[in-house]
Amino acid sequence: MHAPTQQIFLSHSQTDWEAATILRTELEKAGMPVFRKKDTAHLHDGWLYSLQDKLKNCSVFIMLMGREGVQQWSNVEMQLALSRNLLPRDDAKWLPIYLLLLPDADPKKVPPLLSHFQSLRWQIDSAVPKLLLTALQSRTELFSTDKPIDACPYMGLNTFQREHAPLFFGRRKETLEIIRFFGTQSQVHPDHIRREDDQFCRWIQIEGNSVSGKSSLINAGLIPLIEQGALWPRTGFKTWKILGPMVPSENPLQQLAELLECALVKDPDERDFNRSYKQLLPDDTVLNKRLNAVKDPDVGFVLIVDQFEELFTLSNKNEQRRFDAQLANALLENDSRFFLTTSVATGFLEGFEHLLYLSEWYNTRCKRYALPTVSQTALREIIERPASLAGLDAKDIVPDILADAQNEVGVLPLVENALHYLWAHRHDKRLSAALYKQKGGIAGLLETEADDLLARLEQEIPDSKADALKLLLALTRISPDGRHTRQRIALDEARRIAGQNDAQRGQKIIDFLSGKSDGSQGAQKSKGGLRLLTILGDSASSGSYQMPLYKQQFVDLLYEPLIRARGEDEDTGQLVGYWQTLYDYIGNSSQINNHQHQLSQRAKAWEHSRGFWRWWHLAGWSDLLAYRKLGISRASTEGRFIHWSKVALGVKTALQALVLAFVGQSFYWTVKHNLPLNYMLMQQRFRLIDAGFLPEPLPEMVAIEPDEISAAIEPDITFLADGEPVVQEPKFATPGTEIGLAKRFYLSKYEITYQQYDYYVWNQDSKAEYPATAKGGRNQHPVVNVSWYDANAYLTWLSDRTHKHYRLPTEAEWQYSDRAKTSTDYWWGDGIGKNKANCTDCGSAWDGQQSAPVGSFAPNGFGLYDTVGNVHEWTCSVWKEQPDGNEYTCAIQGGASRVFLGGSWRNRSIFLLYSSRDWDVPGYRSDNLGFRAASVD
User: What's the confidence (pLDDT) of residue 629?
Assistant: First the structure.
């Protein structure tokens, strides 16, 4: 860029054209050429480039302001001029700025960034002020000194607000840079901007450490410029409405609803926050729809979300998701008038990973601006410019403050606090370098003032120092590395903590720490006393631009380094705090604070959960023991969380005692009856069956429909008296007879199981005994170790239970059912095959070892399982060596031996033939002998 010529750029509105013409003439008479703009400003593509080039050719800038103030075109010229004005002073391209006010100009309309400069009054019929001519010739910038401000020009630890814009120095360059990122970067006609272009920027994010001055930059830098229309050249919107700034609370969607009502509904009496909130809940596009419904097409809206990290750490998860969706949808709509500015501390950037919608566009649609550390030049301006406005002599302290500030991260609040203290103790309008050194510099002054404040608090409210420290501890989120962060708490909770459950006393302590005057506090404040706390949602401190109207008030630390370590002690290597008193207290109380933080987080999770999860989030006994030292109010969320945790634990303890009683009784029951321990659960199953919650384990019956004529059975095979077949014969049968059945009957699908039989014994209330457990266990294994009498006792109980007649099958019924209308060795064919039954040579997993669970093999043609092998099965027929019709009947006389059929896991396959028979006395029990139920219509 070439060096500018000695020309004056004169900026003015069209309404002040006559005055501008006279001024140009007067300046040219004084030998100062004025760049001649065309009579009418023309917008065209590349117009900003053209305007910028014209400014490059000028060496000074005069803003002539009349009744209308600074209009759109002049506002753009002012921004370009300010960009050059912020260049280092030793650069030949630096552009001094002068503000000349016409008689009808309102000083209140002077743009905040121009209010830094001295404004000179001029009558068009008078000579140009000599002070201006001298400054123009020497290119010396003028600063207002004729009417010094009476109040303190330094903010202390307070954040700059909109009304403090005239005192906001040191960040003008950054402010203008951020403004230029909005909208399009192409220099086109504002009316021809393509807002649907992917390069059109609607979202600016300011990132920096927690004490870098992001909030001050937004309030005193960005907001005034946006209100002036600084976004018009790159967005096309001439008028701007600002939503916020808002700091996300627990309910960010409710805050957004309030902002919309305040921005879109003029009459406060007609605003319905609840209606607006209900509109946002079901439809994630309502934000964009409501803004686009505004009739004036020249109006744009910018939502400012300060301390965006609170959305990750404080907000209700459901509201967080809906707030996220509303913002993302509004940003992505091509016809949207919505713009977004967020500020976030760098330590919380990973929180964007948890935002479902905004995270998708975070790297492509968001312009991220890393707020740089304040330079030494900017810091000098921060000290000297306000001093000049207040008529102060600050030259002695500048070198010392600049030297101290080089090693500090959160330098801005520290410097502002030190300057505020020096102003309060000024002498003859001079800020004392000696006092500054005596108090330990910027860090020492903070510690001195904080200790003095606690001492004055102790005098005002006896025994309050410990309570104040306890409150400050509650406002601290502990970090192991000493970089603690602040956390806001509800005002009601703060009152309880500070007042030891005395809300009135707690409020007095909060008022003192937050600088609210009453009596002696007023005297303290007038001397420049330190403030430690701020109350969010305090309507008394909220300007019309600063919303939302919080339904709940919160208390927060004013300055985070109050709770942080500033470095290590050179001798001991121990961390040293900015305010050692509080830092040591936090260190000594870290466990209590951890419990406090844990309780707060768990209480929030509990409050926001529903159903089972609400119970799941409650605390246990060990947690309650830790929380009892915190002195939580029952009225708070944490108090209710503790109360319901105690209730739940009481119920849980009672249930556990009941369960233990059940377990103890069940253990005794299994030992008493020589049952396996897993039957403790079976007992509970039986109890649930008795209570009607589970079905009874009754046998499933299969209908057997016999033919009129059955296949003949070989009559010439001889049997030995004990039922053993002749070894030489491949087959054997019941002695010469035919099985002929003419009546339908039913047989149980499976052998009666242990579970079915055990339930019968359970139901008898100790009138029957549990059979011994066979190898392999109980449950779905066939019941064994039961006599013929035991089997009939079960079937008698089953008959009474179901009101049907059950008995053991006859020998003929059993053999007919086993064969299933086949004439082969087994119902599946000749030969035992492999894994078709359970015996010693059947090829199954249980061969010769134990019974198999019922139903482990395929059923026969009638749908009956395990008729071949597994366990022998009792019949009701009396044993006879020769057929005499007895095989068709059930004998009722006692003592006679009874037939059992089918073979078992202990037998060879030959004993599994359908015609194989065996017998024993009714009282006989064996681990391979069970039974099957039969019934008739």
Answer: 64
List, in order, residues 6 or more apart from 121 with CB less than 8 Å away: 101, 103, 129
Tell me: cis bond preceding 480? Omega within 30 of 0 counts: no
Three-state secondary structure call for residue 343: strand
Q: Determine the Cα–Cα distance for residues 384 and 395; give it in Å rounded to an integer.
A: 8
Beta bridge mates, 918: 900
Tens digits of per-residue pLDDT, 645-685? 888 888 888 888 888 887 888 888 899 999 998 898 898 89
Structure tokens at 197: 């272009």
* HEC profile of 819-879: HCCCCCCECCECCCCCCCCECCCCCCCCCCCCCCCCCCCCCCCCCCCCCCECCEEEEEEEC
Q: What is the pLDDT of residues 441-469, one digit of tens each?
A: 988 898 888 999 999 999 999 989 999 99
Which parts of 668-751 are beta strand (E)? 701-704, 745-748
Preceding peptide of 730 cis, ω within 30°: no
- Burial state string for 652-682 with b = 16 or more CB within 10 A and e = fewer than 16: eeeeeeeeeeeeeebeeebeebebeeebbeb
pTM for the full predicted model: 0.62
pLDDT at 802 over 90: yes
Contact 389, 144 (CB under 8 A): yes
**Which two three-digit tokens encode residue 247?**
């700091």
Handedness of CA 471, 473, 474, 476 (dihedral sign): positive
Can you give the pLDDT at residue 88? 64
What tokens were used for 634? Answer: 């029952």
5: Cβ contacts below 8 Å, ≥ 6 apart: 57, 58, 59
pLDDT of residue 53: 79
Beta carbons within 8 Å of 286's beta carbon, 6+ residues apart: 279, 280, 326
Per-residue DSSP letter, 183: B
Phi/psi of residue 511, each to 5°?
Answer: -60, -40
Helix and strand numbers (H, E) in the chain are 32, 24
From residue 675, how far is each of 66, 412, 777, 925 by CA, in Å? 104, 79, 10, 18
Give the Å distances, CA to CA, from 302 to 226, 261, 357: 9, 15, 19
Q: What is the greatest pairwise CA distance in the chain?
A: 152
Mean pLDDT over each residue of the chain, to the nearest integer: 84
| d(C-alpha 265, C-alpha 235), whole Å | 24
Contact 247, 536 (CB under 8 A): yes
Report the half-sphere exposure of 797 (CA within 13 A, side-chain side): 20
